[in-house]
Amino acid sequence: MSETFLDALVVGAGFGGIYQLKKLKDQGLYVIAIDVASDVGGTWHWNRYPGAMSDTESYLYRYSWDQEDLKTYPWTKHYLYQPDILAYLRHVTEKHNLRQHMHFNTELISAVWDDSSSRWIVETSTGVTYKARYLITALGLLSRQNLPHFRGIDDYTGELYHTGSWPDNVNLKGKRVGVIGNGSTGVQVITAIAKDVKQLVCFQRNPQFSVPSGQGPATPEYRKSINNDYNKIWKDCKDSMFGFGFEEASRPTSSVSEEERIAIYEKAWNRGGGFRFMFETFGDITTDVDANNCATDFIKKKITATVNDPEKLQKLMPTQLYARRPLCDAGYYDQFNLPHVSIVSLKDTPIAHFTPTGITTSDGTPHDLDVVIFATGFDAVDGSYTRIRIQGRNGQTLKDHWSNSSGPTSYLGLTIPGFPNMFMILGPNGPFSNIPPAIEIQVDFISNMIADAEKTNGAGTGKGKTVIEATPQAEQDWTEMCDEMSKGSLFAKTDSWIFGANVEGKKRSVLFYFGGLKAYGDRLKDVVGHGYQGFTGL
């Protein structure tokens, strides 16, 4: 057992943790980052499954603060695959000499606030105890796996994998494979492996709308055009609603003729990108049911034109609103024209139990499988926190704090009353947007607030020294506003991870701020402009 005293401890070494470590180090603080993984990457360290790819344009799925890297670091396609993203984050870590401040294979076991010393006492799996004045968690939106339990699963003798912890050197070629789940991950996995496996059985709960990704090479000419305009691109990104590199449409669906509408959909379909189709075509697809139906009618016709088998088509045809995280693919529906690819509707015939050789559905049909892949997603946003003992003032744990409210709550998606000097990157009710720019906005705010508090109160610990805490009223007001804002979106009318509805037994609640990236950034500026409104200790 050993103790290490720190100014700040960062938990996580993905996009958020890397940038937070750099910022605080540059401010002169003694800071260390820990991660349970063996290397940097966060989400992109664990999610190594076939076809794993970001659906954000390559030139915006990176940091904006390194101008040299923006223009010179290689990216050859419109969208980055998992190995590309992991290589990029490793590059940033090495270039900025951050690895020496990182401790890997180190799991956060518990974090307890000590009022007497104004420090967080953090126990880890390595036996090292960190005593830090500031605790910043960058646990990731999607890091705690959602792994449903099925009767008989322990009896299964084949290979079992969850896409969120994919091991190296998995060989699926020539095998009988079952994939449970057809969200973003499931769509990517199914598309990537279909041609290589002997048999593919896709177990789906809800049919999904998916549009082409538009994946393709980034030509030198294209890269040059981006490089010449990077400053404007990033300004526009952070001034936009979702930060995906395009101007979101404001026009209503009903403002154009049917012929014009179809032409707009067709252009978006051909260009590719899930977020582009949902938000660049018309401004009311996610707020107006009639507008949503117009968009889904178009996509349904595309699905019908692609899938040849009537039975498969019927199972693949979505019946709910187009109001989940928008998916895109590289030929998902085409895979179901392959004779060895089948689909099981879990609405009609749920999984009854596992057997030693596979899965049996409720109608008694056995599916013999060599491999079962769980593409069942994550206990998103708060799931990574509730599994850890985080204890604030007066012995209250974070899990208890959230269980006593309508769900996971925060002030600004960053901090929680009763948990002083603790800040969350991408915490509950943070912005629903492209991840890297959202992270940058939050990390900059956290870092600047710490710097301002240090100037005001003086560095150190003890009574009267740098204790930053959100007020209960600020948390309540922010939570109520996020909840009210979500009611205007059709996202609230579907069961998805965006509201925690994908995890059995989990309380459905709002998990995001739907006001947009620019409005969120403006709110943070307003908080600062009013003397860190909603916080004490500054």
Automatic annotation (TrEMBL):
Domain of life: Eukaryota
GO molecular function per UniProt: flavin adenine dinucleotide binding; N,N-dimethylaniline monooxygenase activity; NADP binding
Keyword Secreted: no
UniProt keyword annotations, A-Z: FAD, Flavoprotein, Monooxygenase, NADP, Oxidoreductase
InterPro entries: FAD-binding_Monooxygenases, FAD/NAD-bd_sf, Flavin_mOase-like
SUPFAM superfamilies with a match to the protein in the record: FAD/NAD(P)-binding domain
A Pfam family of this chain: FMO-like
PANTHER family, per database record: DUAL-FUNCTIONAL MONOOXYGENASE_METHYLTRANSFERASE PSOF (PTHR43098:SF5), L-ORNITHINE N(5)-MONOOXYGENASE-RELATED (PTHR43098)
Protein name as annotated: Cyclohexanone monooxygenase
